[in-house]
Automatic annotation (TrEMBL):
Compartment(s) of residence: Membrane
Listed PANTHER family: OLIGOPEPTIDE TRANSPORTER-RELATED
GO MF: transmembrane transporter activity
Family: Belongs to the major facilitator superfamily. Proton-dependent oligopeptide transporter (POT/PTR) (TC 2.A.17) family.
Membrane association type: Multi-pass membrane protein
Name of the protein in question: NRT1/ PTR FAMILY 1.1
UniProt keyword Lipid biosynthesis, yes or no: no
């Protein structure tokens, strides 16, 4: 979704700081490469979203899993798929370059989809009726999930940045900004279209033509993804890997720990890069300043002024970068609960399956396709926010952005609680009608209630992401140094990953506690017997508590959208040492 789309955009801004470019013998890159790169990413998203949206039904029907177990597995899969892009970004920046990581990720996703398709083609790959899956069957299934997660770790963090690499051959071109904007527009449009196709067309095929076709078509799509990417290989600008920002942050921690007991020298000098605007470290988190203090000039500084031992002496920029990261971590942590509700798509699908989904007398919307309303909400809001909402808000607030990024995040966090309350109200009505109609024991019975009652909660979830996720990315970008822009993507990916782990733990814990003593679990496979409404209210309470925690974090951080830079009021009266 957009949160996931904007996260990827941030990686582009750090290209010049992290990489060096091979100069080809003939001109390469440019707009001619865009169809190949965009097709690769778009097809991967169609496959991953289309499989994840409907997977709960495959696990429950094909592997006889309960709703709690199936949802827990999907949330762990989501967590892994959101953690590995952080590793993928690190490997591409530090060792292999983006092209190789995208290729590796695409091939891994392709192999994972093939394994998943084989679970539908080989009878022995799934358990017989009414039997539990054995270890070999689960190993094949989980191997497919693992390979697809590894693939996501390669494609998602590198694709948009690899596309931007194609426009750096001529940095003096006055049309670069316009060309990049064209690229971004096409890229985001294709990603949005991919999500819509995934939760409508692909889900419809799975529901009406079976899992063999539903998983076979993704195999074809991933093969096309790899083929189109390789067809453009001779046209690409391929950027070399270089020193990673993450390595610099680790160096600060290591040097600080090494120097933790050393006193500051009498005439303290700090080591900073040539041409840097930041020559003195700030006084917050002062212990970290020991990482850039020149303790032994003869051994730590080369004749040209550079660091001779980067694991003994860091620059002021490195120290300030780590301080900036540490300061935003509390606000970052508030995003975990908000992303938690995005991992619960299986509950909405189970609700929709038990409701009247007729759009016409002859056509029913697949239960997993109702998530498209959240995607459409994000798309509509994103397209109108800058043009309509911001100018209107600016008249009242005096802020040219309308409202601050912190306010946007706060609204998004509040909307997560609203979305869960709406979900609880609708589910309470749906469950009451099911019991009144004698469907309490009929898992699969259709309640006389339109599934369009689920649309408000999906729209609220989409609006929450449009506010919180996008506001969070822009906040990180405004508060972190520009050479840490790619870290904004990594932080949001980590939010998703931790939310997946938390969601899995929450579902399993609620299931275990509520069914204790022979009672019916709140998250039972039969929603008419369970209490999804209670579970939604529990999550709503967590969201409300998270909102209060966010206000506390903002109060501690300070309400500002400006980058926190070292100032003369915040520094010691000491002399800097430049490279």
């Amino acid at each position: 979704m957009e949160g996931i789309v904007v996260e990827e955009k941030m990686e582009v801004f750090s290209i010049e700081n992290k990489t060096t470019c091979n100069v080809p013998s003939k001109p390469k890159g440019g707009l001619v490469t865009m169809p190949f790169i965009i097709a690769n990413e778009s097809l991967e998203k169609v496959v991953s979203m289309g499989l994840h949206s409907n997977m709960i039904f495959y696990l429950m029907k094909g592997y006889h899993m309960s709703n709690a177990n199936g949802t827990s597995i999907l949330q762990l899969w989501s967590a892994l798929s959101n953690f590995l892009p952080v590793l993928g970004a690190f490997l591409s920046d530090s060792y292999f370059g983006r092209f190789q990581v995208v290729v590796f990720g695409s091939v891994s996703s392709f192999l994972g989809v093939i394994l998943l398709w084989l679970t539908t083609m080989i009878p022995q790959a799934k358990p017989p009726a009414s039997e539990e899956p054995n270890s070999s069957q689960l190993a094949l299934l989980f191997s497919s999930f693992l390979l697809m997660s590894i693939g996501a770790g390669g494609v998602r963090p590198c694709s948009i940045a690899f596309g931007a690499d194609q426009f750096i051959t001529n940095k003096d071109n006055p049309n670069n900004e316009r060309i990049l904007q064209t690229y971004f527009n096409w890229y985001y449009a294709s990603v949005g279209l991919s999500f819509v196709i995934a939760v409508t067309v692909l889900v419809y095929i799975q529901d009406h033509f079976g899992w063999k076709w539903g998983f076979g078509i993704p195999v074809i799509l991933m093969s096309l993804s790899i083929l189109t990417f390789f067809l453009g290989s001779h046209l690409y600008v391929k950027v070399n890997a270089n020193k990673s920002l993450f390595t610099g942050l680790v160096q600060v921690i290591a040097v600080t720990f090494k120097n933790r007991s050393l006193p500051y020298p009498a005439n303290c000098k700090y080591h900073c890069s040539k041409g840097s605007d930041i020559v003195l470290p700030s006084q917050n988190l002062r212990l970290l300043n020991k990482a850039c203090v020149i303790m032994d000039p003869e051994n730590d500084i080369n004749p040209d002024g550079s660091t001779s031992k980067p694991w003994n002496l860091c620059t002021v920029e490195q120290v300030q970068a780590l301080k900036s990261l540490i300061r935003i971590l509390p606000i970052w942590s508030t995003g975990i609960i908000s992303y938690l509700i995005f991992t619960m798509i299986s509950f909405g699908a189970l609700q929709a399956k038990s409701m009247d989904r007729h759009l016409t007398s002859n056509f029913q919307i697949p239960p997993a396709s109702y998530g498209v309303f959240g995607i459409l909400t994000i798309t509509i809001w994103a397209s109108t926010y800058d043009r309509l909402v911001v100018p209107l808000l600016a008249k009242f607030t005096g802020n040219p952005r309308g409202i601050t990024n912190q306010a946007r995040m706060g609204i998004g966090l509040l909307l997560t609680a609203v979305a869960m309350v709406l979900g609880a109200l609708v589910e309470n009505i749906r469950r009451s009608k099911a019991i009144a109609e004698g469907l309490a024991d009929k898992n699969g019975g259709i309640v006389g209630m339109s599934a369009f009652w689920l649309v408000p909660q999906h729209c609220a979830i989409g609006l929450a992401e449009a506010f919180q996720a996008v506001g969070q990315i822009e906040f990180f970008y405004s508060q972190l140094p520009k050479n840490m822009a790619s870290l904004a993507m990594a932080l949001c990916a980590l939010n998703n990953a931790v939310a997946g782990l938390l969601g899995s733990f929450l579902v399993k814990t609620v299931d275990r506690i509520t069914k204790h003593g022979g009672k019916q679990s709140w998250v039972a496979s039969n929603p008419n017997k369970g209490h999804f409404d209670y579970f939604y209210l529990l999550v709503a309470i967590l969201c409300a508590a998270n909102f209060l925690y966010y206000l506390l974090c903002c109060w501690a951080y300070g309400f500002s959208d400006e980058v926190k830079r070292s100032t003369s009021d915040d520094q010691e009266d000491i002399s800097p040492s430049r490279d």
